[in-house]
Amino acid sequence: MSIHELAQHYLAQGQTVRAAGLMIKLVEREPTPQNLELLADIYLRQGLFDHAKALYLRVVKMGLK
Fold first, then answer.
1. Looking at residue 35, what is its pLDDT?
2. Which of 2, 42, 39 lies closest to 23, judged by CA?
3. Residue extents of the structural domains in the chain
4. Secondary structure (3-state) at 1
5. Tens digits of per-residue pLDDT, 8-51?
6. What is the DSSP string of 7-63?
7. Taken in order 55, 20, 42, 48, is the CA torsion positive or negative?
8. Of 41, 36, 24, whose CA–CA distance to 61 is shortest?
9. Class assignment of domain 3-64?
10. Cβ of 5: how many Cβ atoms within 10 Å?
């Protein structure tokens, strides 16, 4: 199971802090659109709307390049 998949599993279980911890480390190494989007989704679930918005904007900007 990849880190991304493990974070998705934790998110599905409602363990957002664990999921965020994994994804923050992964995004530092691999800031792919998929990883950024999952971290943004986690932030949304945590109510961290400004953080989520910033990550979603990064994903959109990556798609425009």
1. 97
2. 39
3. 3-64
4. coil
5. 999 999 999 999 999 999 999 999 999 999 999 999 999 999 99
6. HHHHHHTT-HHHHHHHHHHHHHH---HHHHHHHHHHHHHHT-HHHHHHHHHHHHHHH
7. negative
8. 36
9. mainly alpha
10. 10
